[in-house]
């Protein structure tokens, strides 16, 4: 095998359609564009979502819902994740910086502690918000649940 006798595998390449090369080619005349109309002209491009004059999908489907601009979005962290963190690293106080350093939250997240799982350790936690069950579980173990602004 040498460079001068290399060729692609059988059936892997096709010749392109040579349109507009005379009547004898079978693709002359209208050059596969049909007769007249915008689509036969050069420079034609349809609008995004255009369905040939039929009512387009984005207009057939009804509008619903809304986006509340005043919503405060919290990043939820459950008690079982806090328990794993305490067992692994031995923290007694946890705040947002500890959670960010250990990959449980991003630095711009507002953090809310949620009540899934069981907390066995006494931990003081200082974050943006707590669910009622999480706060009760933390205080039941002698810890402090403090809201940080």
General description of the model:
The structure is a single chain. By secondary structure, the chain is α/β, with parallel strands linked by helices. The chain has helices at 57-60, 79-89, 96-101, 132-140, and strands spanning 74-78, 93-95, 110-114, 124-127, 129-130, 145-147. It is elongated and about 90 Å long. The mean pLDDT is 93.
The portion of residues forming beta strands comes to 5-15%
Large-scale geometry: elongated
Order of helices and strands: HEHEHEEEHE
**Biggest sheet: strand arrangement:** 1-3-5
What's the rounded overall pLDDT mean?
A: 93
Structural class: alpha/beta
Count of alpha/pi helices = 4
What is the strand tally?
6
Are there runs of 5+ residues with pLDDT below 50, and where?
none
Tell me the span between the first and last alpha carbons.
Answer: 72 Å
Gyration radius, in Å: 33 Å
Described by strand count, sense and barrel closure, the largest sheet is:
3 strands, parallel
Helix content: 10-25%
């Amino acid at each position: 095998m040498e460079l001068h006798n290399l060729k692609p595998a059988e059936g892997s390449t096709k010749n392109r359609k040579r349109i507009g090369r005379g009547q004898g080619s079978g693709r002359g005349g209208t050059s596969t564009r049909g007769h007249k109309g915008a689509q036969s002209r050069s420079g034609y491009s349809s609008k995004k979502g255009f369905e040939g004059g039929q009512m387009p999908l984005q207009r057939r489907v009804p509008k619903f819902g809304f986006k509340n601009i005043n919503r405060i979005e919290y990043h939820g962290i459950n008690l079982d994740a806090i328990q794993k963190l305490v067992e692994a690293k031995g923290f007694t106080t946890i705040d947002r910086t500890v959670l960010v350093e250990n990959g449980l939250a991003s630095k711009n997240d507002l953090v809310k502690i949620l009540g899934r799982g069981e907390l066995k350790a006494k931990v003081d936690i200082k974050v943006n918000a707590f669910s009622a069950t999480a706060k009760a579980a933390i205080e039941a173990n002698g810890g402090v649940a403090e809201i940080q602004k």
